TrEMBL record:
UniProt domain Rhodanese: residue ranges: 22-129
Spans through the membrane: none
Keyword hit for Metal-binding: no
GO MF annotation terms: transferase activity
Protein name: Sulfurtransferase
Organism (species): Acuticoccus sediminis
Pfam families: Rhodanese
InterPro entries: Rhodanese-like_dom, Rhodanese-like_dom_sf, STR4-like
Keyword terms, alphabetized: Transferase
Record has Transferase as a keyword: yes
Length: 143
């Protein structure tokens, strides 16, 4: 079992989409907030065997306190610890923390999606144009 400080593999959004398409048991775990899902959008994995991302807040808006039951809730949603879990957030920090937790809880294949859904800000301070899921041209939807 990895510790919370064990390295977590980093994968690009394109690699993540490819793996979700190739591995029917793989799951995308979106750890952003309900507000982000509603106002920024969601990765659309409906064309993959995974069908829908697991939506589970790592930090709860508006306080941004780490969710006390994140690990337990994700274990209930994905009980097979050999399942490949691809964690995504806005830019890659929250998802890395979530991947480390689940790795420490015995999940064997945890991956962090580099640059997340929106990536870093561009020269004008706007996200979603430089890197990340949206900028990679991968499918996404607005709720």
């Amino acid at each position: 079992m990895q510790s919370e400080h064990s390295p977590i593999a980093e994968v690009t959004p394109a690699e993540t989409f490819q793996e979700l398409t190739a591995d029917p048991s793989a799951r995308l775990v979106d750890v952003r907030t309900k507000a982000e899902w509603a106002y920024v959008g969601l990765p659309d994995v409906s064309s993959t065997p995974s069908r829908e991302p697991v939506l589970l807040e790592w930090q709860v808006f508006p306080t941004m306190a780490v969710s006390d039951d994140f690990g337990q809730t994700l274990q209930s949603a994905c009980p097979d610890k050999s399942t490949a879990l691809y964690f995504i957030c806005r830019s890659g920090a929250r998802s890395l923390a979530a991947a480390r937790l689940m790795s420490a809880l015995g999940y064997e294949r945890c991956f962090n999606v580099t640059d997340g859904f929106e990536g870093p800000p561009d020269a004008h301070g706007h996200r979603g144009t430089v890197a990340g899921w949206k900028a990679s041209g991968l499918p996404w939807r607005q709720n």
